[in-house]
From TrEMBL:
<keyword id="KW-0460">Magnesium</keyword>
<dbReference type="InterPro" id="IPR025121">
    <property type="entry name" value="GTPase_HflX_N"/>
</dbReference>
<dbReference type="Pfam" id="PF16360">
    <property type="entry name" value="GTP-bdg_M"/>
</dbReference>
<dbReference type="GO" id="GO:0046872">
    <property type="term" value="F:metal ion binding"/>
</dbReference>
<dbReference type="InterPro" id="IPR032305">
    <property type="entry name" value="GTP-bd_M"/>
</dbReference>
<dbReference type="InterPro" id="IPR006073">
    <property type="entry name" value="GTP-bd"/>
</dbReference>
<feature type="binding site">
    <location>
        <position position="244"/>
    </location>
    <ligand>
        <name>Mg(2+)</name>
    </ligand>
</feature>
<dbReference type="InterPro" id="IPR027417">
    <property type="entry name" value="P-loop_NTPase"/>
</dbReference>
<dbReference type="Pfam" id="PF01926">
    <property type="entry name" value="MMR_HSR1"/>
</dbReference>
<feature type="binding site">
    <location>
        <begin position="210"/>
        <end position="217"/>
    </location>
    <ligand>
        <name>GTP</name>
    </ligand>
</feature>
<dbReference type="InterPro" id="IPR016496">
    <property type="entry name" value="GTPase_HflX"/>
</dbReference>
<feature type="binding site">
    <location>
        <begin position="330"/>
        <end position="333"/>
    </location>
    <ligand>
        <name>GTP</name>
    </ligand>
</feature>
<dbReference type="GO" id="GO:0005737">
    <property type="term" value="C:cytoplasm"/>
</dbReference>
<dbReference type="GO" id="GO:0003924">
    <property type="term" value="F:GTPase activity"/>
</dbReference>
<dbReference type="GO" id="GO:0043022">
    <property type="term" value="F:ribosome binding"/>
</dbReference>
<keyword id="KW-0479">Metal-binding</keyword>
<feature type="region of interest" description="Disordered">
    <location>
        <begin position="140"/>
        <end position="159"/>
    </location>
</feature>
Length: 427
């Protein structure tokens, strides 16, 4: 037996019940986020308030109740459902005597633990430093208080030194941020080059988007297994929040030679921290440049409707709009609902682990990505054999016939390929 596994950190979560229908869901989500960060929620405290108290988040009576609960349960950490201002953070820490963090800091901690690639690590670091910057004041004030309290008398010199230290910390962090930004730019440059090459190839692109843990990477892996140029190029999938932090793009070639690129990217959660969205913008632009969005939804989760709303809000936040979308209600094998089924041409109920479901999904993708493809009849002289080879690779050949003048083909091809074959067209 492994006895080295550390026990989860026990925490209390706190939230402001603004009487909105999403409130209970956001507290459930906060519990799941805490669990994703190896924490165990042992209790929660809610206060019915429209707006947080500017100084202490909760009202004073509730803060007192929280302090007593923290002492009684002996928890080392309290997590607030909303982003706390520097002074709220400081006052709550003082009142409870334990570590207080907010939803934003919690999400940043999870991202920091999950980040694998250099790009993701830098992106998270930038977001963390930016979150810390306005909160520096608080930390140094605390040190100041301690110094003044114990030393006594030397207030003036201590304060002077403290201020200098704060300024210095500010400068150091600001410098770190700009240094990391420069490094990120270098990485992004090479990413952009890759993207530019793809644009030139003009292969249509579909992007998997949606709430974290919905099954995006699982769908990606199954499609890569079937149609990938390199079937070994699997991405990481796991039953946990934010399994994927990096964008992966794979080229798929369907049996009829139609090709497209599929991208898998970071999943969403409600109130995704602003700094994190900014830092991950380059990763997320993959979705912004897609011809088709495939929103994956965990249909077995009772909160799936809120998750759709969250995804839509986040897409707006990163400036993704006016891209056609298909809705994939996944994990139907965990529900009583029949699958695979298709409603209209943009709503599917599937299970990522079922072959017939994947066939249906591919049909739906094809319908959207290749609807502007045209079927044409061509007569290509034998001397232009290279055109036939090109079409064999890039188009769907529906019919081939050899006549004395050359090769007669009926092909279905992309609009961009039409000029290339214009002179061979027969009516
Ligand atoms: N039963 C069932 N489980 C599924 C299905 N699709 C995915 N899963 C499981 O759900 C978990 C999450 O899947 P992922 O593919 O990692 O989810 P994701 O959307 O990529 O999640 P993030 O990367 O965190 O955004 C994994 O344990 C999968 O095996 C499905 O159709 N049915
Ligand atoms: Mg994933």
């Amino acid at each position: 037996m492994d006895t080295t596994i550390s026990r989860p950190e026990r925490v209390i979560i706190i939230g402001l019940d603004n009487d909105q229908p999403d409130y209970q869901y956001s507290m459930t989500e906060l519990t799941e986020l805490a669990e994703a960060n190896q924490m165990e929620v042992v209790d929660r405290l809610d206060q019915a308030l429209d707006r947080p108290n500017a100084a202490t988040y909760f009202g004073s009576g509730k803060v007192e109740e929280l302090a007593q609960l923290v002492a009684a349960l002996e928890v080392p950490t309290v997590i607030a459902n909303d982003e706390l201002s520097p002074s709220q953070l400081q006052n709550l820490t003082k009142a409870t005597g334990v570590r207080v963090i907010d939803r934003t800091a919690l999400i940043l901690e999870i991202f920091a633990k999950r980040a694998q690639s250099k790009e993701a690590k830098i992106q998270v670091q930038i977001a963390q430093l930016q979150y810390r910057l306005p909160r520096l004041q608080t930390a140094s004030d605390q040190r100041l208080d301690q110094q003044t309290g114990s030393g006594g008398g030397g207030g003036f010199t201590n304060r002077g030194a403290g201020e200098t230290k704060l300024e210095m910390n500010h400068r150091v962090i600001a410098k770190q941020i700009s240094h990391l930004r420069a490094e990120l730019k270098e990485i992004e440059k090479s990413e952009q080059t890759k993207r530019a090459q793809r644009d030139k190839a003009a292969i249509p692109t579909a992007a998997l988007v949606g709430y974290t843990n919905a099954g995006k990477s699982t769908i990606m892996n199954h499609l890569v297994e079937r149609y990938g140029v390199d079937a070994d190029k699997q991405v990481f999938e796991k039953d946990m929040l934010f399994a994927t932090l990096d964008t992966s793009v794979r080229q798929l070639t369907l049996p009829d030679q139609k090709r497209f690129l599929l991208s898998d990217t970071v999943g969403f959660v409600s109130k995704l921290p602003h700094h994190l969205v900014q830092a991950f913008k380059s990763t997320l632009t993959e979705a912004a440049q897609a011809d088709l969005l495939i929103q994956v939804i965990d249909y077995s989760d009772p909160h799936y409707e809120q998750m759709i709303k969250t995804t839509e809000t986040t897409l707006q936040q990163i400036g993704v709009e006016n891209i056609p979308m298909i809705y994939v209600f996944n994990k139907a094998d965990r529900t009583e609902i029949e699958f695979p089924t298709m409603e209209g041409d943009d709503r599917l109920i599937i299970s990522a682990k079922d072959g017939a479901s994947l066939d249906l999904l591919v049909e739906a993708i094809k319908h959207h990505l290749f609807s502007d493809y045209e079927t044409v009849d061509l007569l290509i002289p034998f001397a232009d054999g290279q055109v036939v080879s090109y079409l064999n690779e890039h188009a769907t050949i529906l019919n081939t016939e050899y006549v004395s003048e050359g090769t007669k083909l009926q092909v279905e091809l992309a609009p961009k390929d039409l000029p290339r074959v214009e002179k061979y067209r027969v009516m």
